[in-house]
């Protein structure tokens, strides 16, 4: 699955020569208006940062009302909001000045929603403002979204609307998985390499022999395993001048601070119908890439001592069928060191045994199964 990483739009600026026809008085008036506007923006920005900063000290978990089949959106928002490393970036954004720009800005509307959730005394709030904002970007309500697709849409909207380039790069540094793909021609041994960035790893739930994969570690090994491309999958070799069998491999060049994994539990049949795969697939609370990847599957320095250690932070789970289902999120509180289940407006504390119930069970038609897994680097999870 190709996953684009959005680039921030550069702020528009008026060129100096466009001011050269102004009189001295006009220039003075323009400068005064600009100073007043800048002061107002800065004051508003500082007030909002102070509010959100104080609110973020609270440990209460607050729910989000379902306002139109928004369970998928609500679950993803909770994963973002409960991650204080993400909200630390969100609180530093430049607040849009105009009312129209504020309604258009996804990061700003997320800030307002975070403030309402953490400063209010309600058990749940309505994400109406953010929903209206997202609708301006073609993210509609009353549509059954796939959590992996909606995550990419949200993340790219957030990053593309962060004007500060340093903040945008900080966000990218938190989430981006850097890989190197290679193709080796099996006729002449010509090797071609390409670098790629991904926001999540789409992991198979079946091995190449069609047997079910039972553990997350095996799913990762299967994803990074070299693959022989033959038959219709052959690639064009520049040296041979024709399509030849190739060996496709992948290396990790840099692991992110926040690792998002997508268990591909939905598949399309020949009939065009989508089916959910609910068989048992376990995932650990602690993940060590040093025990998963071979030396050939990462570049030197990519897995320095301790850099491949992750702790489970969130599970976005799906219950029901492929065509009619429901999402909720299990999230580890970094401040309280407890698991919570966020089921729209309902929020309750749960145990690890409750989270383990999302491993899957093919015998239950409406079984709840993990769909997205979010891991934090061990040093990041501890730095709160």
TrEMBL record:
Keywords tagged on the record: Hydrolase
Keyword Kinase: no
A Pfam family recorded for this sequence: UCH
InterPro entries xrefs: Papain-like_cys_pep_sf (IPR038765), Peptidase_C19 (IPR050164), Peptidase_C19_UCH (IPR001394), USP (IPR028889), USP_CS (IPR018200)
Record CDD domains: Peptidase_C19 (cd02257)
One GO CC term on file: nucleus
Biased composition (Basic and acidic residues): 7-18
GO molecular function, one term: cysteine-type deubiquitinase activity
Domain of life: Eukaryota
Keyword Hydrolase set for record: yes
Positions of the USP domain: 62-378
Residue stretches of biased makeup (Acidic residues): 25-35
Positions of the UniProt region annotated as Disordered: 1-35
GO BP of this protein: protein deubiquitination
Protein's name in the database: Ubl carboxyl-terminal hydrolase 18 isoform X1
